[in-house]
Amino acid sequence: MLATDKLAAHIKVCPVAIGKLVDFDAKSDKLYPLDLTAANTALTEELVADTASFSRWIDKKLADNHCRYGIGGYMEHRTIYTRSTLFDTEDEPRRLHLGVDIWGEAGTPVYSPLEGTVHSFADNDNFGDYGPTIILQHNLDGLTMYSLYGHLSRESLAGLADGQAINTNQQIATLGNATENGRWPPHLHFQLMLDIGDAQGDYPGVGRYSRKAEYLMNIPDPNLILRFSGFPVTSV
User: Fold this and answer.
1) 234: pLDDT confidence band, cut at 50, 70 and 90?
2) What pLDDT score was predicted for residue 34?
3) Domain coverage including residue 159
4) What value, to the nearest 5°, has the Cα angle with vertex 81 and ends 112 and 31?
5) Cα separations (Å) of 174 from 76, 104, 134, 152, 180?
């Protein structure tokens, strides 16, 4: 069974309290769907390679469309990862985005939408990497699931401890700026996993397109938790 279908079926039978990931007023705030695939010809290699230019491009998209956040990315085959050798491999570069990105201002509060505990955390300080990252573990009435929060501020890691209890809607972090978040325009990478093996403070957020079927068995669509209007859940 696909991970999205498994999580959806479990939530239907065993409802859980789901809170917010970021502050959002559905009556007044808007989301802008960002297309970071090859179909978006405005995203030249020169643009995405320069963090300041890339940031200005995103900021303008949000401002021109009167949107609080940009959003998108689950199982999106992207071109932007040419900006870092971190995503290169000998046989096939990593280009498939496995979570959802929420693009907004540095300092934006990030909340845990589910009750859980701190599984692990780390500062993945490489160009193009997550920067500060938190992984939470959740027990959804018998189903274990993990949530990952990447591109955070360094102060988000202060005072954390493995096993620390986290409540639904508890603020756990803020978005980092480009000097601390892996050299990206400010945004949150949010990802769900049913199994993370022995991972600690890090888990791939971008994979090989040829392994998409494998990822779909373990990585549910985060829109099951986000529940933003206009962004339906998909399992393919």
Assistant:
1) low
2) 93
3) 3-224
4) 45
5) 25, 11, 11, 6, 12
Residue among 169, 25, 10, 21 nearest 99 (CA): 21
Which structure tokens are listed for 7? Answer: 């999580």
Dig out the tokens for 123 from the structure. Answer: 């500062």
Percentage of the chain exceeding pLDDT 90 = 76
Strands annotated E in the chain:
31-33, 69-72, 76-77, 96-97, 100-103, 109-111, 116-124, 131-140, 143-150, 165-166, 171-174, 187-193, 206-207
Contact criterion met (CB below 8 Å) for 196 and 166:
no
Does 229 reside within a domain?
Answer: no
In a domain, 235, yes or no: no
CATH of the domain at 77: 2.70.70.10
Report pLDDT for 236: 41
Closest Cα partner for 2 from 175, 225, 212? Answer: 212
Predicted confidence (pLDDT) per residue in 12-28, tens digit: 998 889 999 999 998 89
pLDDT score, position 3: 97
> Looking at the 3D structure of the chain, how many domains does it have?
1
- Could you tell me if residue 126 is inside a domain? yes
* pLDDT reading at 140 higher than 80: yes
User: So what's the pLDDT on residue 81?
Assistant: 79
Tokens found for residue 177: 């700026």
Task: Please give the Cα distance from 64 to 135 (Å, whole number).
Answer: 34
